[in-house]
Design a protein that fits this description.
The protein is of the alpha/beta class and about 425 residues long. About 30% of the residues lie in helices and about 20% in strands.
């Protein structure tokens, strides 16, 4: 099956989710901060909320894939199993004796059980240790509440560990230590699972820090990349070089954002809800800037212009005279509250149709007044890790594409020539204004 994504707002065909499972039950007051959760979620309710989210997608004709299912199927491939087991055993904190015990433990597991351990982790008390099979010094000195293999509760947010640009997948380079092992799983799925056979990569985990929540596909050939707490300027530059070389884009807008928990990714303050409309946190709308990066000619470095106001630069790159802006909330206090509650983090299923958390009532009302239909979902527990519907989903669309209803017949390279190969106008009239409430 061919997958193709070139826009945030085309009709969504297929999405990758991760249903919260035992890894969420590993969160405790001792570890929730280091595992990047603001609270300890009620796991059963989080699963109910996630099931309702998946059901809402299916009701709109979206195919839902589950990461855990794909991982178990991938682990049935011997090379994938050996690779992921070796990755876990490579951890320098294990020590030789404990490493041998863990290797023995994992070798007895079937693919489904191994997938559970790789996602939910392995607790100190779950490892089979005896006088005949000692754990060694490292195991002895561990607290009984510690994990031999750490859980991955942030797998819930599948957007961050991989993204599709055109017909290529990017497996990202996650910045936070608690999340870095996530990409070993997604990387193995895309390389070994039969569904993704032959898929080419546009980014790999060994490259500079880049996270999917910072990448918006504004229009075919136009990307916005936030740089802040998670994605570094070097990561944005590397992605630009990769997509330009592959002919997947002609323009990238690099957008500095505050290095704060509330604005960890670009999609926490801005998401697209129509081909010419963004939902945006008003407290930064007038100050957000962008550096425009254009593909260079053969052998030339990309050209960097700016900074310019983000909304102007985006409209310019998208060939729009007007980029509509829909504000989060109605007033500064409500806007700040609903932005914290992921009011900006909507998932577009089609132009003028999106999924959002039901608790952000003022933002949802703003969207409806602007002609955007909102599918409300519960998120009181899902949001404890600071992520909304977009964070919890990775679009992986069949060949019909997300923009014009079909995949372009021409090659990406022919669609997006370099600066030297096309005559771009020196200036273009651009305007923008907030949508009326």
């Amino acid at each position: 099956m061919t997958h193709y994504v070139d826009s945030e707002v085309g009709r969504l065909g297929t999405v990758l989710l991760h249903r919260p499972g035992p890894e969420l039950a590993r969160l405790t007051p001792r570890n929730n901060d280091s595992l990047l959760f603001d609270a300890i979620p009620w796991v059963g309710r989080a699963q109910e909320e996630h099931d309702a989210f998946a059901a809402a997608l299916r009701e709109r004709g979206v195919e839902v894939l589950y990461l855990a299912t794909l991982l178990a199927e991938t682990l049935a491939v011997e090379d994938a199993r050996a690779e992921l087991t070796e990755e876990v055993l490579r951890s320098p904190r294990l020590g030789d004796t404990l490493r041998a015990r863990v290797a023995d433990h994992l070798s007895y597991l079937d693919p489904a059980a191994l997938a559970d351990v790789l996602t939910a982790g392995l607790a100190h008390e779950e490892l089979r240790i005896s006088s005949e099979r000692p754990g060694g010094l490292v195991y002895t000195l561990m607290d009984r509440h510690d994990f031999v293999i750490d859980p991955l509760p942030n797998l819930l947010f599948t957007r961050d560990s991989s993204l599709w640009i055109g017909d290529r997948v990017g497996v990202t380079s996650l910045a936070m230590p608690a999340r870095r092992r996530e990409t070993t799983l997604t990387d193995a799925i895309y390389r070994h699972h039969p569904r993704f056979a032959g898929t080419e990569f546009v980014y790999r985990p060994s490259l500079e820090h880049l996270e999917g929540g910072d990448v918006l596909l504004l229009a075919p050939g136009v990307l916005a990349v936030g740089v802040g707490e998670r994605t570094t300027p070097a990561g944005a530059e590397r992605l630009g070089r990769q997509v330009f070389a592959a002919g997947l884009a002609h323009t990238i807008l690099v957008v500095p954002i505050a290095q704060e928990r509330a604005t960890m990714h670009l999609d926490t303050v801005c998401t697209m809800v129509d081909v010419d409309a963004v939902l945006m946190y008003p407290n930064i709308a007038s100050t957000l800037s962008a550096y425009t990066v254009i593909a260079g000619g053969d052998g030339e470095d990309p050209r960097v212009d700016g900074p310019a106001p983000f909304l102007r630069a985006a409209a310019d790159a998208m060939d729009l005279d007007l980029l509509r802006v829909i504000d989060t909330g109605l007033d500064p206090v409500t806007a700040e509250r609903e932005q914290w509650d992921d009011g900006n983090n909507t998932l577009a299923l089609a132009p003028r149709l999106c999924v959002g958390y039901e608790r952000n009532t003022e933002t949802n009302a703003q969207l409806e007044r602007a002609g955007i239909e909102v599918i409300p979902i519960a998120g009181s527990e899902l949001g404890s890790g600071r992520g909304g519907p977009r964070c919890m989903s990775c679009p992986s669309v069949p060949a019909c594409g997300r923009w014009a209803g079909r995949r372009p017949a021409e090659s990406p390279a022919s669609r997006y020539p370099s600066t030297a190969e096309r005559d771009r106008p020196a200036q273009r009239r651009v305007s923008w204004r907030p949508s009326s409430p």
